[in-house]
Amino acid sequence: MAGAVVGGAFLSASLQVLFDRMASREVLDFIQGQKINGTLLKKLKIKLLAVQAVLNDAEVKQVTDPSVKEWVEELKHAVYDAEDLLDEISTHALQRKMEADSQTSAHQIMEMLLSDNAICNEIGVISIVGMGGIGKTTLAQLVYNDERVKKHFDLEAWVCVSEEFDLLQITKTTPRSFTSDTNDLNLLQVKLKESLSGKKFLLVLDDLWNENYSNWDRLRTPLKVGSNGSKFIGTTRNDNVALIMHSVHTHYPSTHPNLEAVGKEIVKKCHGLPLAAKALGGLLHFKAEAEEWDNVLSSEMWDFPNDEILPALRLSYHHLPPYLKPCFAYCSIFPKDY
Does the pLDDT value for residue 235 go beyond 90? Predict the structure, then answer.
């Protein structure tokens, strides 16, 4: 019996989650984008409301009535299927957003790549800087494989550098730099200069860690013979690497570039309190819509009279999903330091 009661309570909470997610912007945008009749969503919501109205009674009767118990089980599976569908929609929406952000970033880098403007006859260096897994290499590949790039440059090469800056190996991997297996760096660099002289080239150095200016200078010296418009693209996790390369442009990929300014304003309202910043960080971590962040920033709760509850913590509770608020209230019965 206890299992049935707990299962019923879980089902009620799941229905409430479905209501919230069905009204989310990502679901509504998906329906509009797929040209699905919006009345279907309304009909589904009406049916779910009808189910919720009788669910409490069914949770009690299922203990003694096998047919009601079977109905509750079928309903549970239907709710699981609906949750799976909404998960797919959320994933699809996130993928589309990330693709749009990548295309925007690629367009910005492409404009610089296709420009033949040179500064003091130096090869233009474009750095892509960001933490691991944010999409630096993917962005560089998107640009590197573009047909416009293939037509614009006479030669292109991609070198994966990684943590060890092996000047000899990098030089060997550079386009048309050698025809033998020699390990003589000077000879390789001479051949490299002959291969690149007067040609417009693009060299991508992926996953750079080198902070030694001498190494970078030795690499680029034989490459200066390239024609006007030649370019480097370097991907790195370290701002210092971009500085050493004298980048003409440093690009910072971001999954949510429009939220940074709002986030900084929210941080100011935390007044340097780590607990407040941590609570709001946990709240906003999975929220990708600017409107949701703006709602937190402009909430009137920041201006409530001072009491023992930090405004940031009050906001975190206020934005909890409905099914979690009772759990939070239950935990409050325990004494401090229990």
Answer: yes
Question: Which positions ≥6 away from 200 have C-beta within 8 Å?
Answer: 152, 153, 154, 155, 226, 227, 228, 229, 230
pTM of the model: 0.54
Q: Identify each DSSP E strand in the chain by its residue range.
A: 124-129, 155-162, 201-208, 231-236, 249-251
- Cα gap 91→6, rounded to integer Å: 30
Helix (H, G, I), strand (E, B) or coil at 177: coil
Tens digit of pLDDT for each residue in 58-107?
766 776 788 888 887 887 787 778 777 777 877 777 677 767 777 778 88
Query: Residue 23: what are its φ and ψ, rounded to 5°?
Result: -95, 0
Reduced DSSP (H G I as helix, E B as strand, rest coil) percent helix, strand, coil of the chain, to 5:
60, 10, 30
Strand partners, 125: 232
CA distances from 143 to 106, 113, 132, 261 (A): 6, 9, 19, 27
The Cα 318–Cα 332 span in angstroms is: 15
User: What single string gives the DSSP state of each residue in 80-122?
Assistant: HHHHHHHHHHHHHHHHHHHHHHHHHHHHHHHHHHT----BTTB
**Alpha carbons 125 and 146: distance in angstroms, whole number:** 18
Q: Is there a contact between 80 and 223 (Cβ–Cβ < 8 Å)?
A: no
- Joined tokens for residue 222: 């034989």
Return the half-sphere exposure (C-beta side, CA atoms, 13 A cut-off) of residue 269. 22
**Computed from CA positions of residues 86, 291, 40, 30, in that sequence, does the dihedral angle turn out positive or negative?**
negative
Q: If 0-12 CB within 10 Å is exposed, 13-18 middle and 19+ buried, where does residue 75 land?
A: middle
Is the distance from CB of 311 to CB of 270 less than 8 angstroms?
Answer: no
